[in-house]
Amino acid sequence: MGYKLTNPSLTILVCFAALPAFLWAEGARGEQPAPDRTPLSPYRVVRSYPHDRQAFTQGLVYENGFFYEGTGLLGRSSLRKVDPASGRILRQIRMEPSSFGEGITIFGDRIVQLTWLSRKGFVYDKASFRLRSTFAYPWEGWGITHDGKRLILSDGSSVLHLLDPADFRETGTLGVHDEKGPVTGLNELEYVRGVIYANVWPTDRIAIIHSRTGRVEAWLDLKGLLAGPDAQGADVLNGIAYDAGSDRLFVTGKLWPKVFEIRVPALKGTAGRAGSGASEPSR
Ligand SMILES: [Ca+2]
Questions:
Q1: Structural domain tally of the chain?
Q2: Which domain holds residue 192?
Q3: Domain-embedded: residue 189
Q4: pTM of the model
Q5: Tens digit of pLDDT for each residue in 162-188?
Q6: For residues 93 and 189, what is the distance between their CA atoms, to the nearest angstrom?
Q7: How far is the CA of 240 from the centre of ligand 1 (A)?
């Protein structure tokens, strides 16, 4: 609301091919329909915001006018609260040099931050960033989000772990797949209107995942979003945040100089329909 545009010319309509039609294969023996292909979602760039080029973004969240960001790399890992308009860091703690920071999520008055290989999570007070507790988990830690009831954690595989936010015990899993099979490399996460957005390492793609079935309902291909001099020295797309109050979606990447606000239409007839929550799969 009222943020300064860093580059008004970025209000570009970037519409990729609309949802592909259902494809039919003509097999030698007759008319077997091909498995339906996962559609490519259109998107539109709304505006961009400054982002710290030194931030190896591993987790991004938006809440009440601020970004909260977890960064990685040994010796450079941090948790920070950032002013979107200026990119200024308002609050920051640096993790111990042996910790490689990964995804973060805000659950109530707590911020949860994962580490990559230490199998140790950190719980901070949201307001003060004071460390409240730590917890252990038996996987690599990549991304984390929540659906209001369960924490949802990725470990780089195709399986998302569902955890009880009270004690961090696993209560279930969600296998993520598209028509070709399991989708591996699930990284930073964000729960958005009943679906789970997931960066897929090391690509420029985001999987939009049905939160009950694990089926990828649509792909978001953000190749070319960061271009020209901005792309020099930048690493992969990683970092998704959602402003539920204003229905705004933000994406960035590791060592990117910008955060982009993008508009993605809600999926029709799926869990991604605005306000519908999880529902039956679309096929
Ligand atoms: Ca996120």
A1: 1
A2: 43-263
A3: yes
A4: 0.84
A5: 999 999 999 999 999 999 999 999 999
A6: 22
A7: 4
